[in-house]
Design a protein that fits this description.
164 residues, 4-stranded mixed beta sheet, globular, two-stranded antiparallel ribbon, binds zinc ion, 6 helices, alpha/beta, 57% helix
Length: 164
Amino acid sequence: MNIATRPENGVKFSINHFRFYRKYAFAVFNTLRKPLFQKFLNWVLRRENIDEHKVKDVQIRMFPFIKENGNGLAGKCNSKGEILLYPKKLDFFREHMKEFGKENVSFFIRSRARATLIHEILHLKYVSDEEKVRELAEKYFNIFTKHQRTQDLDTHNVTKMIFT
Ligand SMILES: [Zn+2]
């Protein structure tokens, strides 16, 4: 699976924003490329009978995608098998940093990236069946999370924030 970070052109952000999103993109890049997670994704692909070559390209975009209604977008995919992943807005972390603590923010970023990639991969099979994709994505995400060491992390709250 080819996973890469791609910088965008023509986006103007302050230096602080730039640093934040650059760090964010690297965290996502490292998380998704981890052999354990790649192994897990391959297992999901086999279980769902999705040809692994269907996933052509996974692009980690550096800046958030904001829809017309003002909401952010976590990811999208197209029929060519290209998956784009977007970060959560910096404002979100400014709001939740105190409440969560640094450890959980980092856990949130990694979890959200994994959940989004699982979600988009499932779309390659269940195209526009959003309900089915959501249900399965949460199921697979929980299977993966259960096998991680997460005693000190607020797994329940983070998971709730990702899936609601
Ligand atoms: Zn979806």
